[in-house]
Amino acid sequence: MLRSLKRRGLKEHPKLAIGDGALGFWTAVAKEFPNTDHQRCWVHKTCNVLDKMPKSVHARAKAAIHEIWMAETKQSAEDALDRFCEDFNDKYERAVDCLVKDREELLKFYDYPAKHWKHIRTTNPIESMFATIRLHTKRSKGHGSVQAALAMAFKLAQCAEKRWHRLRGHELMADVVNVEFRFVDGVKEKANAA
Question: What phi and psi, each to the nearest 5 degrees, are found at residue 56?
Answer without folding.
Answer: -65, -20
